[in-house]
């Protein structure tokens, strides 16, 4: 979720020259380590801006009782203070480099394989369906890293839901160790099937939304590399909204699978969780938490893409 696209459309003066321009830009590919560093910057920006919203969303989705984002926020602040909004932020911050390393490598590799693009920002002339497919491939590739990190984060965020008044974990490391002690190393991948069902469509919409929003703001004959910071923020925000609307139903299932207690799990499988969630409230149950999700999506993803673009430009 930490990638962006800038391209050099100024070299494209005709339909015939479009492919030549892409090849010329491939002579200066962006080194993988630069994509990793820039992606890390974007990821850190996203966590700092979006984590409080994520905490409210996780608690809202974890329980079956009817509630609202404002009610959850009020209770959280009353019980834990403002610090509670940032609970579980350690794993996302520490894991950003690993997640982005896989995400950017996979996205770049997919773009190179399908469109001959070695710089993931040079996508102005790339067919939109290839941009989207590359995003989906990147989403699938990063699941192995993302799933255990999100499990720890969600356990930290929702521990007071199942044990009011006391903390189950001293921190992210203690949380991971207790998960392993309870169910072995494979327990770290609780909710993996739901994550696999969530992330490819999520990143399909994410990268596609960003590219479409950039192109919509780029003048005819111009280049997306000339877009202002404000325009890049807008494109990133649109990408975030598109992705969240796509992934929210499966994200609810994943959150419930990952937040349930080890001792007395509420769901036997992803399918069991899906059926029980539907039985609770129909399709509306899969959009629980949509308020904080959308409130977070625009600003968090706006700074993600802007952070990535600015960092990558600084490294060139």
Automatic annotation (TrEMBL):
Solcar repeats: 30-113, 126-216, 227-314
GO MF terms held by the record: O-acyl-L-carnitine transmembrane transporter activity
Record keywords, A-Z: Membrane, Mitochondrion, Repeat, Transmembrane, Transmembrane helix, Transport
Mode of membrane association: Multi-pass membrane protein
Annotated GO biological process: carnitine transmembrane transport; mitochondrial transport
Domain of life of the source: Eukaryota
Localization per record: Mitochondrion membrane
GO cellular component: mitochondrial membrane
Pfam families for this protein: Mito_carr (PF00153)
Endpoints of the signal sequence: none
Cross-referenced Gene3D superfamilies: Mitochondrial carrier domain
Protein family per UniProt: Belongs to the mitochondrial carrier (TC 2.A.29) family.
Name by which UniProt lists this protein: Mitochondrial carrier protein
Classification of source organism: Eukaryota, Viridiplantae, Prasinodermophyta, Prasinodermophyceae, Prasinodermales
